[in-house]
Amino acid sequence: MTQQSLPIAFAIALGLSSFLGYPTLAQIQMSTLLSQTPPKPPRTPPDNQTKPGGGLNPSNPSCKSTSKPLTALIPVKNPVLTTREHPTFLFYVPYASDEVRVGEFSVLVGPEEKTRLYKTRFTLPQTPGIVSITLPSAPEYALKEGQYYHWYFKLYCQSNTSSQPSVDVNGWVQRVPLTPERERQIKAAAPDVWYDASANLALSLRASPQDARLRNDWVNLLKSIGSEDLAQEPLVGPVIPSDK
After folding, report:
1. Are 88 and 201 in the same domain?
2. pLDDT score for 192
3. Residue of 70, 81, 75, 90 lying closest to 202 (CA atoms)
4. Does residue 115 lie in a domain region?
5. Co-location of 231 and 197 in the same domain
6. Which segments of 39-80 does DSSP mark as H helices, in order?
């Protein structure tokens, strides 16, 4: 075979391999390139809606007027992190149990939100204050590392008979690995791993409300998200699951 006939023979061989269903050299190279390309990191979600109406306290005829609105105790900007499979979420609720017919909390898998991880209905503790919700410890409710989840917290006040909530807030959570540095940040009640630090501190402060150091850490933590006005509100504990 002459030197000039080599390219022709090579082209014929490529065409024949494609005709017979075998991958061509270009296809093999492209497949190798794609397999070596790392997956794109998840897109950071939009801001959390920590108060109804984008931060306002809208007049809602089904709820009484309050001086402080329903507030999710998290930063506005994402990502907001946890290292736990079953994290705890904190909310300031300005209503007593007899003022809210039922509440609803749900967690969807982001970013498409086509899959619901968890949903529950609940009633509130007797007095207004800061309440908590913790994902059940069952494996099917565990957060996966690196995944974003979108949660929704909704309240239906007593005179509300519609399917629309009276007030609601929503936000995001991302689970990350527990490293020595993150463990240090959580113990120091720093805002870097927000869900873990805030839940730990709230639990400790509820058990020891007169502890000056814990109280000071709580004020500073809430100040970091602009919610220092809620630092003196009582920690009234977890919501109560409901069949309503």
Report:
1. yes
2. 98
3. 90
4. yes
5. yes
6. 52-55
Indicate whether 26 and 129 sit together in one domain.
no
Distances in Å between the Cα of 81 and the Cα atoms of 36, 102, 131, 173, 197 are: 29, 28, 19, 6, 10
Closest of 52, 4, 42 to residue 169, by C-alpha: 52
Q: How far is CA 198 from the centre of its chain?
A: 14
On whether the CB atoms of residues 151 and 48 are closer than 8 A, the answer is no
Domain range holding 89? 52-241
Instruction: Supply the pLDDT for residue 71.
Output: 98
- Return d(Cα 23, Cα 28) in angstroms, integer: 6
- Residue 234 near residue 127, CB atoms below 8 Å: yes
Enumerate residue ranges in the chain where pLDDT < 50: 5-20, 33, 55-57, 59
Per DSSP, the three-state class of 174 is strand
211 and 103, same domain (yes or no): yes
**Cβ pair 216, 110 in contact under 8 A:** no
CA-wise closest residue to 173 among 202, 143, 198: 143
Angle at alpha carbon of residue 174, lines to 121 and 240, rounded to 5°: 20
Contact status, residue 164 vs residue 153, Cβ threshold 8 Å = no
